[in-house]
Amino acid sequence: MSGVGDSVRLPSARAFRYLMSAYPPLLFAGVRVEHVAEDWTSVRVSHRVRPWNRNINGAAFGGTLYAMTDPFFGIMARGQLGDDYRVWSVRSGIEFVAPGRGIVTATMELDATRAEQIREATRDGAKSITTHSTTIYDADGNTVARATQDVYVRQLRAASVLGA
Fold first, then answer.
1. CB 33 within 8 A of CB 108
2. H or E segment at 87?
3. Quick one: pLDDT at residue 6?
């Protein structure tokens, strides 16, 4: 499980964009965070496939395609819900559709309505597990991969009382 725990306070969306672009697992894989919405409702990332970061077939490495999407749904949830929530990625998957060459991009979205539904679902101490998905595209708009992620959310106050 990967998550945003109770001791981490998120910076502004703008600062987060720069910090994540410099985060070694993304930086060395060649993933760039292009945009983070100020209200934490969307994140857009890109990856330029180069000779030093491609696979044996000359396409984007599958692990890099997954890394493009991995942390962002949970972070968007935490950004919208606030520091009083424990957020974890509990399950994820990726379906590789076509080789990714050149520049590939993905946009993750978590609209405010969905975030409010998560807030309501966790108001009385219950946990929420929601499924989110995105598509990774090449420069011509062709689908390269589809990624899904299940995000666990529980209020910290409730989590400490309930032992989760």
1. no
2. strand 85-96
3. 47
Rounded Cα–Cα distance for residues 102 and 67 (Å)? 17
Compute the average pLDDT of residues 47-65: 93
Cβ neighbours, 10 Å, residue 106: 23
d(CA 142, CA 135): 10
pLDDT reported for residue 9: 76
pLDDT at 139 over 70: yes
Confidence of residue 62 (pLDDT cuts 50, 70, 90): very high
Residue 47: strand pairing partners: 31, 104
CB atoms within 10 A of CB 14: 11
CA-CA-CA-CA dihedral for 16, 22, 28, 29, to nearest 10: 20
- Entry pTM: 0.86
- The residue among 147, 148, 35, 150 whose CA lies nearest residue 100 is 147
Report d(CA 113, CA 39) in Å as an integer: 12
Q: Which amino acid is at 119?
A: R
